[in-house]
Amino acid sequence: MRWFEKKTVSQQTYKAQIYVTLRPSVLDPAGTAVASGLQQHGYTGVESVRIGKYIELTVTTENEELARQQVDQMCDQLLANPVIENYSFELKQLATTVGG
Prior knowledge:
The chain is α+β, with helices and mostly antiparallel strands and 100 residues long. 28% of the residues lie in helices and 39% in strands. The chain has two domains: 25-54, no CATH class; 57-100, no CATH class. A three-stranded antiparallel sheet has the order 2-1-3, with helices on one face.
């Protein structure tokens, strides 16, 4: 490539849908309260409830692998507490842009 030629970089935008839940070994008082409330309202088939978080974000990177790495790091470092929570996520490609 010559000095006057621009390198074309393709950027892809992804939507990450992140699910954060308490580890099974961690007590969930909010879930217990919701289960009790549901049973009191006649939903007697409800045996247990676990409360979690749903997070949605968009990220723009060069490729899906890099997007997965970044979202995984975000979850591990900030969005979830790895001591007491588990997380999982799904990525959906939204758009591709080409820039110089």
